[in-house]
Amino acid sequence: MKFDLRNAINSISDVVMNRPAPLREFDQIYMKVADMVIQAEYVARVFDGKKVVFVGDGDGIALSAAHLKAQDVISYGPKSITLLDFDERIVNSVRRFGEKLAPKIEITAHLYNVADPLPAEHFGAYDGFHINPPWGASNGGQSVTAFLERGSQATNERSLGIVVIADDPDLPWTQEVLRDTQLRAIELGYVVSEMLPQLHLYHLDDAPDLRSCSCLFRRVSQV
Description:
This protein is α/β, with parallel strands linked by helices.
């Protein structure tokens, strides 16, 4: 899809200025701006016209996709976006920014920790989910599968899911987590519809070259 790159970067910069500083102790590591543009456009395209839930979103991809549409940088995007995040700072920042976008796209944000059961009102309520969880280097990928399971619970029987996780062929743990995530997705009734490998870079001082991929899952059966 073609769009004005300058306008896109300026729109994403608005989102970057709005988000709170990352808390490394909670594995909040933010994506670089150019890669946010790529991911936000991809999210808008995949979830065009759909109700989407973001289970965590420190990067600000939800607002980025919405803002690109609201600014007419792109003509497509989700019908509505719901954010579930444990960080009250992020929830409040999304609520503030979302008020400006309300005429073009509905955005809501709620405090939620994936360690808790998913509130009943979110079960099966959405057409798609997006997660960019802690990547699981220290827990064998359990953090990824926890977010994946919550996203699956929140979506309907014909849903799509985008999972952003570490992807570096030279780091075996990233490949093991990627494999195990795909296995768990299959168990939950999904197939891999598309994968964009080694796509994003992050503001990560101790591993500046570590990249993440974007995996698109499509549900073919509901477990």
